[in-house]
Write a structure and sequence with these properties.
26% of the residues lie in helices and 18% in strands. By secondary structure, it is of the alpha+beta class. The chain has one domain (13-408): DD-peptidase/beta-lactamase superfamily (Beta-lactamase, 3-Layer(aba) Sandwich). The longest helix has 22 residues, at 375-396. It is globular and about 60 Å long. The two termini are 31 Å apart.
Length: 428
């Protein structure tokens, strides 16, 4: 394979003085794989801006897990666009908020209607992809996790509210995490407002009205985040300067790893870091973090495009297939040349488990918004090779005690045959 040369990005000024964290143990594991692409990327952290956290999980004789993180080029000051990975904490927070609203008579399956009180807000009264024909939080979470639907994210954002999202995550121990933007092209101030929402019964009768909300809290935008050497603006004109992500959503790989661990293994983190979820909430999340589009009746996806490994980057290859005995509980994101995946991998045949969180930036021309990114030639192949290298290492790694993974082993059913048209396009 030929080496891929990408112009070095304009780095954030503060990042130039930071010290990325790298553990020799992880670097040695990756160097054991002589694949040219993998080694090309690893050799150029300043170009690909990759960051990797490999979480080794060991169990004791009582099956209690312990966790050890190994880092490669991890630096919270090196910005990457988190894209759809922001849907992960919003799914968790949506269920948490619903649990606090039990006295209002609503749950994840209660039907919803979104009104608008501002010119830029969009109403939503129906959802043809759901079994009921109406929106619900449960259905938004399905769409956000199965194929990474953007409108589902916007609606969860509107339900929780910008203030609650950020205050709660800061309270949980993520002070520099910021979710300040919907995927609607809105201004900083417009994103502070969220739609009025009605919860209704099957006859359309009002159960609960959630009024419009506004977030007066100030954000800390003092850290400047810029990427690339140019970008196409809304008029498709080239602007010859870096694109500014200072006011955009901001999640680090450490945030993502911690958030997923706190839901997959809530007892492994402090009470402060746990979401307030019920047993049914956890079961629901485990299902849709791991389920394939081919196993979903509602929504009904075209599996030629939304194949089993579509959002399972560490196992995504030309076959589009997943090993029968492996399930990946994860969330991915891709935008502006950034590919990110935070995963918990469980192999029920070989009784192994691990977590892997990684991001990579692939943009050879340095221009953003031109839809010319090396996802197919560099990004997804790298993520696959990274995942398979760690997976192969885990298959051979000695363990004092084999884990009992039965708590994560779910029953999945193929989609039922019917005449409904399958969804072929999703804004993700």
């Amino acid at each position: 394979m030929k080496s891929v040369f990408i112009p070095v990005l304009l780095l954030v000024s503060l990042a130039a003085f930071s010290q990325p964290r790298t553990d020799k143990e992880l670097l040695d594991i990756l160097k054991q794989n002589s694949d040219p692409l993998l080694q090309e990327v690893i050799s150029h952290p300043e170009v690909y801006r990759y960051q990797v956290i490999y979480t080794r999980i060991d169990r004791d004789k009582k099956n209690k897990p312990s966790f050890h993180n190994y880092y490669l080029n991890v630096d919270s000051l090196i910005y990457f666009n988190p894209a759809s990975t922001v849907k992960l904490p919003l799914a968790f927070l949506s269920l948490e908020k619903l649990r606090s609203m039990k006295n209002e008579g609503v749950d994840m399956n209660t039907l919803m209607q979104f009104d608008s009180s501002r010119p830029w807000q969009r109403k939503l009264y129906a959802d043809s992809t759901s079994e009921t024909g109406k929106p619900s939080i449960a259905h938004f979470i399905r769409k956000a996790l199965l194929v990474s639907d953007n409108d589902a994210y916007n609606r969860m954002y509107q339900f929780i509210g910008q203030q609650t999202i950020n205050r709660r995550l800061h309270e949980m121990g993520y002070p520099d995490l910021r979710i300040s933007r919907q995927f609607m092209g809105l201004t900083v101030d417009q994103n502070r407002y969220t739609n009025p929402i009605r919860f209704i019964d099957t006859e359309g009768k009002l159960i609960y009205l959630q009024p419009e909300a506004y977030n007066p809290d100030a954000f800390n935008f003092s850290h400047i985040n810029r990427m690339g050497k140019g970008y196409l603006n809304a008029k498709d004109s080239l602007v010859n300067e870096p694109i500014d992500f200072t006011f955009a959503n901001n999640l680090t790989v450490e945030h993502l790893q911690g958030l997923l661990q706190s839901v997959m293994f809530p007892q492994s983190v402090s009470k402060k870091q746990r979401f307030h979820l019920s047993k049914n909430d956890y079961a629901f999340l485990y299902r849709y973090l791991s389920q394939y589009p081919s196993e979903s009746d509602y929504p009904k996806y075209d599996t030629a495009k939304f194949y089993d490994s579509y959002v399972k980057f560490y196992f995504r290859d030309s076959t589009h297939l997943m090993p029968e005995h492996v399930r990946v509980f994860n969330k991915v994101g891709w935008a502006y040349g950034c590919l990110t995946d935070v995963s918990y991998v469980a192999d029920f045949k070989n009784n192994i488990e691990f977590m892997l969180t990684a991001t990579i930036y692939v943009n050879a021309d340095g221009i953003l918004n031109d839809d010319k990114y090396e996802y197919d030639s560099v990004g997804w192949p790298f993520m696959n090779k990274l995942g398979q290298t760690i997976y192969s290492y885990e298959l051979k790694r000695p363990r004092p005690f084999r884990p009992d993974l039965s708590g994560f082993k779910l029953e999945y059913q193929p989609r039922k045959a019917d005449s409904r048209p399958a969804i072929k396009e999703v804004d993700n």
